[in-house]
């Protein structure tokens, strides 16, 4: 069975040890995290913490991880998305060659956040598929020097 990229949006207690317990679920099952984004820095309730986790796995492994996470005492709920789900938004910060022109933005936004003689930092936001298309364009043109990508659920 083929692996695919998944995104879990985890509602959890915002307390020490929650992230460690979540990471252990993945580690103990041989799955590396591609990205993790935490929110709820100042939650209004103890349940206000949220983690957005991206990873690659087969569907059976994703289901195993989902069940294991929901059994943790600090986890309230886990929503599951494929990374191409249009309800998600991707955020990418890409370091490009400074001469790189930005392609016409279709269904995503591209903004230069830093430009020097040696590099251009660009933030791309939009649906995961559109941001991935733009990043693939930069890869094909050999203009992508570095990259950080994350997902958020709205």
Outline the biggest β-sheet: 4 strands, antiparallel
The rounded distance between the terminal residues' Cα atoms is 30 Å
The ordered H/E elements are EHEEHEEEEHE
Q: Any low-confidence stretches, pLDDT <50, length ≥5? A: none
Question: What is the residue-mean pLDDT, rounded to a whole number?
Answer: 88
> Shape from CA axes?
elongated
Portion of residues in beta strands equals 35-45%
Question: Tally the helices: what do you get?
Answer: 3
Instruction: Report the radius of gyration as a whole number of Å.
Output: 17 Å
Give a count of the beta strands, DSSP E runs of length 2 or more. 8
SS content category: alpha+beta
Instruction: Going across the biggest sheet, name each strand in turn.
Output: 2-3-1-4
What fraction, in percent, of the residue positions are helical? 10-25%
Describe the structure.
The chain is an alpha+beta fold and 154 residues long. Helix content is 23%, strand content 44%. The protein has a 4-stranded antiparallel sheet with strand order 2-3-1-4. The radius of gyration is 17 Å and the shape is elongated.
How would you summarize this macromolecular structure in one to three sentences?
The chain is 23% helix and 44% strand. It is α+β, with helices and mostly antiparallel strands.
Notable characteristics:
single chain; 154 residues; alpha+beta; four-stranded antiparallel sheet; 23% helix
Secondary structure topology:
Layout: E1 4-12, H1 18-27, E2 33-39, E3 49-57, H2 59-70, E4 75-82, E5 88-96, E6 108-115, E7 120-126, H3 128-140, E8 144-153
Antiparallel strand pairs: 1-3, 1-4, 2-3, 5-7, 5-8, 6-7
